From TrEMBL:
Keywords, in A-Z order: Membrane, Transmembrane, Transmembrane helix
Record-annotated membrane-spanning stretches: 371-389, 401-422
Keyword Transmembrane: yes
Organism of this sequence: marine metagenome
Entry annotated with the keyword Membrane: yes
UniProt xrefs under InterPro entries: Class_I_gatase-like
Protein name: Uncharacterized protein
């Protein structure tokens, strides 16, 4: 009996250990695990002053809970993005947020369940570089295939890091499904073998991005990839011939050389002797880039406000893959300026964002600034009174000890005086001014791609809610440029499926500018058609389906912006004849050089950012001419002493129509006063509010026979 007792004890001890292990394992299974992955930017690369995607992938192996993802800069606290997501048991969720890049290179992400942090990543890093640099995304057929770009050779390493063109190799699974998040790309290379595997949401985002100003470079691996993919076929609108082998020769080399690049190597004999499997390419309303065996094997065309370039061969195969000059070929195809490959970097100092110009148009007119002369007079009067006047007066009454009372009294009196002056100059009522810049994008279902600039004047320190019912979009603060970054603090952006909201802090007696970017169905609105009747003669048809009259119109065609005499009431249809050119009978057009040389916009932006000075100098009239000029920031430039162009203004999100104008694209710009295409972005009540909308409608020109 005694001998059996130790064995029994050991048996129960083993059972207890086994039970404890099962209990712990069961608890672990009950709790489950959450996988939290974050993919920043375009393969970790972003351009400052542009939107970029942040893709989250979450797998919940535990109980169902309502989670909230939070993304914020690692240094500082502005802006903060939050996204509400329901995480059921054994489900995987993947979603993308459009985030605006300023100068922050480090970010932190958390997944919360209530107040509890379930998972986090505090080491998210970005390769953040100047917005003037070129960024090409690539969805290649092979992992190491696709574009390569030449290296810059500037004297300064800092300039090479800032301005070197980059290629971001993207993954199909994490490719964004939000066209606004794609806005940070200059161009996207897509192999047709990968295009057929894009999800419906990804394909829609890519098409909208192209129509809104993006540049798609499509390499056709097999023509069936295009013709059997409806979204791609409707975007490309091309015809392809049979594939046949052609000698590469010097056609591609000569085409790359015409880009004006300084260091293109001598012809590659091995490549020239090689055989390329090519198909003939013809695009509707397009033009050929180069030919092989008298067949066009590459072509490009405008699509909406953007462009498609189509290669009738696969550049990820030999002999193209080993061609020594292929980097210069890609540079030309991606529209990389030749100036980026010279010894001296293009001057970018003092470059401001076009946001400042919109702010000068929208900021409240209730606020006035104290002129610097008056400030100096007040300062001089204060110094005179607390100094010689106080001493002389107290000496005369022989009460020098009273200075302990008079000095605080002077301080209090001048403090009250300054407050009174500030109150008279800056106090007013809550005010909301909105300007909507809306691109009417073509397609089977027209889409509105909008940018809503909102200026809020606040009579007190307060937080104001903004937003709307948008599946895709983002809200950002005013951007001041590479050296100023975000012009205000405290912005909290809240996303949920179908909903976009934000909370912005506005200090007392000041105006704050924000921008909401969104997508919405067109639902009628304005339609237009343009017909060319002869040299420099056009017929423009406009149907106004808005609830307000169109009060002004301008037409971009043949590289000129021409004023159109138009007053169109709601529901009205007009047909107008327009003549383009410099002859006496031509319609007047905008001279962008007058804006550049006068420096009106640049001076207004600088004056607006000053606390004291000329009030009117920081204001710009939101007239049709000024609004249209802001759609071409790259043309509102000047020249440095060497005669090289300098862009005074940058923009984001496809706002700039300059490249479209240089490609010969046509756009109708219409102004509707006291009209908004969406409900007010401001989710608060105010008695003082104004709204204007500038519609930008890309047109395909129909020529009469």
């Amino acid at each position: 009996m005694d001998a059996a007792h130790p064995k029994l004890t050991r048996h129960f001890a083993r059972l207890a250990k086994l039970g404890l292990a099962c209990l712990l394992a069961g608890g672990s299974l009950a709790r489950g695990e959450v996988q939290f992955d974050v993919f920043m930017g375009f393969a970790g690369k972003v351009r400052q002053g542009e939107w970029f995607p942040v893709t989250f992938e979450i797998f919940n192996d535990g109980p169902t809970f309502d989670g909230q993802v939070e993304l914020r800069p690692r240094f500082g606290d502005n802006p903060v993005y939050r996204y509400n997501v329901e995480l059921a048991t054994n489900t995987r969720k993947r979603f993308t947020l459009a985030v605006f890049a300023d100068t922050n290179a480090g970010w932190s992400a958390k997944l919360k369940n209530g107040r509890k942090t379930v998972a986090k990543d505090d080491e998210l890093k970005l390769d953040s570089f100047d917005s003037a640099a070129v960024l090409v995304g690539a969805l290649s057929g092979q992992q190491a295939g696709g574009p390569v770009l030449p290296k810059t050779r500037f004297k300064s390493k800092w300039d090479n890091d800032r301005f070197a063109p980059r290629v971001a190799h993207l993954q199909l699974d994490t490719f964004p499904d939000d066209p606004i998040a794609l806005s940070g790309l200059n161009a996207l290379y897509l192999n047709s073998a990968r295009a057929i595997n894009l999800r419906t949401e990804q394909a829609a985002a890519l098409s909208t991005w192209v129509l809104g100003g993006g540049h798609l470079i499509l390499a056709v691996d097999q023509s069936g990839d295009v013709t059997s993919t409806p979204w791609l076929e409707s975007l490309i609108r091309g015809r392809f011939g049979p594939v046949q082998n052609s000698a590469a020769g010097q056609a591609l080399h000569r085409w790359a050389e015409t880009g004006g690049y300084p260091d293109v190597a001598s012809p590659d004999a091995t490549f020239a002797a090689g055989q390329l499997a090519t198909a003939e390419v013809r695009l509707a309303k397009g033009e050929a880039l180069f030919e092989l065996d008298n067949r066009p094997v590459a072509a490009e065309a405008n699509r909406g406000l953007g462009q498609v370039s189509v290669l009738g061969f696969n550049p990820e195969r030999e002999p193209f893959k080993s061609w020594t000059n292929r980097a210069w070929f890609w540079a030309r195809l991606a529209k990389v300026p030749a100036a980026w490959f010279e010894k001296e970097a293009p001057q970018q100092y003092g470059r401001s964002s076009i946001d400042g110009v919109y702010g000068a148009m929208l900021d409240s007119r209730q606020v006035s600034k104290l002129p610097i002369v008056w400030l100096l007079l007040l300062l001089a009067a204060y110094l005179v009174i607390i100094g010689p006047v106080d001493r002389i007066w107290l000496n005369r009454i022989n009460k020098q000890m009273l200075t302990w009372l008079t000095f605080p009294a002077y301080v209090a009196i001048f403090s009250l005086l300054i407050y009174f002056i500030g109150y008279k100059l800056r106090a007013g009522q809550l005010e909301l001014n909105e300007l909507h810049i809306v691109d009417v994008l073509p397609g089977q279902q027209e889409v509105l791609r909008g940018r809503s600039y909102v200026s809020i004047y606040s009579p007190l320190n307060d937080d104001y809610r903004l937003g709307g019912s948008f599946e895709q979009g983002g809200i950002r603060s005013e951007y001041g440029g590479a050296f100023r970054g975000n012009m205000a603090s405290s912005l909290r952006v809240q996303r949920a499926p179908g909903q976009l909201e934000a909370s912005a802090r506005v200090p007392i007696w000041t105006s704050r500018l924000l921008c909401s970017e969104w997508l919405a169905p067109a639902n009628g609105g304005v339609t237009a058609a343009l017909t060319k009747n002869g040299r420099a003669s056009y017929e423009l048809s406009i149907k106004n389906g808005l609830d307000k009259a169109i009060t002004g119109a301008m037409l971009l065609v043949e590289g000129k912006v021409t004023e159109v005499e138009l007053q169109s009431p709601p529901g009205g249809t007009r047909t107008i004849r327009v003549r383009i050119g410099s002859s006496p009978d031509s319609d007047p057009h905008i001279d962008f050089e007058s804006f550049s040389h006068a420096g009106r916009f640049e001076n207004a932006v600088n004056a607006r950012n000053m606390v004291f000075g000329d009030t009117e100098g920081g204001r710009i009239d939101p007239s049709l001419v000024n609004l249209v000029a802001c759609s071409f920031p790259a043309l509102l430039g000047s020249s440095n002493p060497a005669g090289r162009p300098i862009g005074d203004f940058s923009s984001s999100g496809g706002l700039d129509l300059s490249a479209h104008a240089e490609r010969g694209g046509a756009v109708l710009l219409l102004l509707a006063e006291d009209h908004a295409p969406i409900p007010s972005t401001g989710l608060f009540e105010t008695k003082l509010a104004q709204a204007r909308t500038l519609y930008r409608i890309p047109l395909e020109i129909t020529e009469t026979e």
